[in-house]
Specification:
There is one protein chain. The protein has about 140 residues and is an alpha/beta fold. It has two domains: about 5-60, Roll (2,3-Dihydroxybiphenyl 1,2-Dioxygenase, domain 1), CATH 3.10.180.10; about 75-125, 2,3-Dihydroxybiphenyl 1,2-Dioxygenase, domain 1, CATH 3.10.180. Helix content is about 25%, strand content about 30%. The protein has three helices and seven strands; from the N terminus they run βαββαβαβββ. The chain is globular and about 40 Å long.
Length: about 140
């Protein structure tokens, strides 16, 4: 297996609501696609949105997954101020702030929000090394 993630697909309860959250609220670039899914092109990968029940069916798992899923998605930025700014943007777009941005034990600064379907996102500034594509 090569060291990359090509796409992250999130199961969503309301496809259009979630598409608006990511496109209009967070400003991700939506790809042109006609069908039962929504895609956003990211730097080096894609984010996909797919109906919750259909994704569970496709993966042959129960659709009633509840509570903490053991997964978070992270978006790293270059400053603490960017973390604060993006947290406000996410909240204005309809996200639930789960943990306000703050200095954290590993020396960085981060906070968490959940999207309309409860998927956890961490917004983080890491002073030790850059996590992301070069020349971002």
């Amino acid at each position: 297996m090569q060291p990359r993630i090509s796409m992250i697909t999130l199961g969503v309860k309301d496809l259009e609501r979630s598409a608006r959250f990511y496109e209009e609220g967070l400003g991700l670039p939506r790809m042109q696609f006609e069908g039962g899914a929504v895609f956003f092109q990211l730097n080096g990968s894609w984010l996909g949105l797919y109906p919750w029940d259909a994704l569970a069916e496709d993966a042959s798992v129960e659709k009633e997954g509840k509570g903490f899923r053991g997964v978070t998605l992270a978006h790293n930025v270059e400053t603490k101020q960017e973390v604060d700014q993006l947290m406000k943007q996410a909240e204005q777009a309809g996200a639930q702030v789960e943990k306000l941005p703050q200095d954290v034990f590993w020396g960085g600064y981060s906070g968490y929000f959940s999207d309309p379907d409860g998927h956890l996102w961490e917004l983080a500034w890491n002073p030790h090394f850059w996590v992301g594509p070069e020349n971002s």
